[in-house]
Amino acid sequence: MTLWGGRFEGAPDDGLWRFTVDTSDRRLLADDVVGSLAHVTMLGEVGILEPPDVAALTEGLELVLAEAQTGRFVFTDTDEDVHTAVERRLGELTGAVAGKLHTGRSRNDQVALDLRLYLRRSGRERIAELGTLVAALSAAAERAGDAIVPSYTHLQQAQAVPLAHHLLAYAWMLLRDVARFEDAIARLDVSPLGAGASGGSSLPLDPRLVAERLEMGGVFVNSLDAVASRDFVAEYAFCCAQAMTHLSRLSEELVLWTTVEFGWVTYDDAHTTGSSALPQKKNPDIAELARGKTATVIGDVTGLLALQKGLPLAYNRDLQEDKVAVFHADDTLGLALEALTGMIGGASFHPPPPSSWVTALDLAEVLVTRGVPFREAHHAVGRLVAQLVADGRTLADVTGDELVAADGRFAAEDVTRLTAEGSVAHRRTAGGGSMDSVRAQLATLRRLLSD
Ligand code: ARG
Predict the structure, then answer these.
(1) Which residues are within 8 A (CB) of 413 and not within 5 positions of it... i.e. 6 or more apart?
(2) The dihedral formed by the CA atoms of 77, 80, 86 and 87, expressed in degrees to the nearest 10
């Protein structure tokens, strides 16, 4: 069934049908009906529809909604889109009165509303899942205890830090992703219904009543903007892509850390896969796929931007393609969050101690506390490092006497600063890599997660 037969003599060509019909909007079914219920209520309240019509349409739409919610709704091959399917089914259930549903409305403002309702709900789900992964990272940080790892710059060992500090870095990234979704939801929570095809209607519609019924934060102020704009879709996909990018960085480390070369972590069997050829393998496929799927979600964002860039106002059928991209981005993030939460939950950490080179900065800072300019202190430690490297030794091998011989401003007991534990114990910067900082972060996270 089409909603536009009157002007046409013949039926649509099969090729046109196959090319133009997209079934990806079927998941908007429940939102479409909820939007229609609000629309019918408004039409009644402003007096466009008589109470018996409102009652019949409402009753019929509620039956359709029940079918949608219980998976009993049946689409047919001749439904051009989800909006058509709902109107067809409503007609089957209520008869001719169904023809009044589309009063003062177009599929252009209708689909914009449906998508906003869908993304508002799914965004809240992604926020909850991000929170669950943050909780899993916090629990992993607690399990890591006082294990110390090197931090890296240029993938070279830099300074000693608690492993928990490293894990919690991702918690803060993911909490910003939560805030980004909240911002995006606040911006998209605006009803476009009443904009009609492009310029509104001659009927006394009240878009505010629809928005209130749907508990939306506002209504459109320009009908062309309301039906033409998809920045809310691209922004939502960006939220997904940025969160995926954080997951991808984490995943890269989860892969690296479980190599024999690193040996920092072992994952439980439930969250790893085997090799068909190599019996010894336990592969971190979840992390690899999260990293790989991030590429496709980044593609969704660029696709959504490209989709909008050349479109004249207002609605163009091109916009139908927005759903395929944003649903893919959203679904992928949801699945990745669930899988990675499981993987982190089953991870046991056992990192080897960092090399003693990670204490070189501490040694320079010892001299700074004795009034030596940092540049000079850096040079003195650099010379010592160069000599040790030439001798095939490390800072762990240095004796107190050697330290004093290297620079008279050192004291013999300064060798106690040359361990990773000593380095972390002396770290003072708030938010730096110390156990105090980790404890403070965990306390803050606990508070934020319980809000
Ligand atoms: N499937 C369409 C979309 O997603 C619905 C709106 C169709 N509007 C129209 N005038 N054909 O954009």
Answers:
(1) 400
(2) -120
Average pLDDT, the chain: 96
Ligand 1 binding pocket, CB closer than 6 Å: 25, 81, 107-108, 111, 317, 319-320
Q: Look up the CATH superfamily of 5-103.
A: Fumarase/aspartase (N-terminal domain) (1.10.275.10)
Percent of the chain at pLDDT > 90 equals 93
Q: Which overall architecture, per CATH, does domain 112-205+221-349 show?
A: Up-down Bundle (1.20)
The whole-angstrom separation of Cα 323 and Cα 32 is 14
Cβ pair 290, 275 in contact under 8 A: no
SS3 423: helix
Residue nearest to atom 3 of ligand 1 (CA): 320
- Please tell me the distance between residue 110's alpha carbon and the centre of ligand 1 in angstroms: 9
Nearest to 432 by CA among 362, 385, 373, 363: 362
Structure-block tokens of residue 215: 């508990």
Cα–ligand 1 centroid distance for 112 (angstroms): 9
Helix (H, G, I), strand (E, B) or coil at 80: coil
Structural domain boundaries in the chain: 5-103, 112-205+221-349
| Ligand 1 nearest atom to the CA of residue 82, by list position | 1
DSSP helix/strand/coil, 283:
strand
Q: 307-331 pLDDT, tens per residue?
A: 999 999 999 999 999 999 999 999 9
Please indicate whether residue 275 is annotated as part of the active site. Answer: yes
Q: Is 112-205+221-349 the same fold as 5-103?
A: no
Per the residue annotation, which of 154, 202, 276, 450 is the catalytic one? 154
248 is catalytic: no
pLDDT in tens, 418-427: 999 999 999 9
How far is 249 from 40, CA to CA, in rounded Å?
48
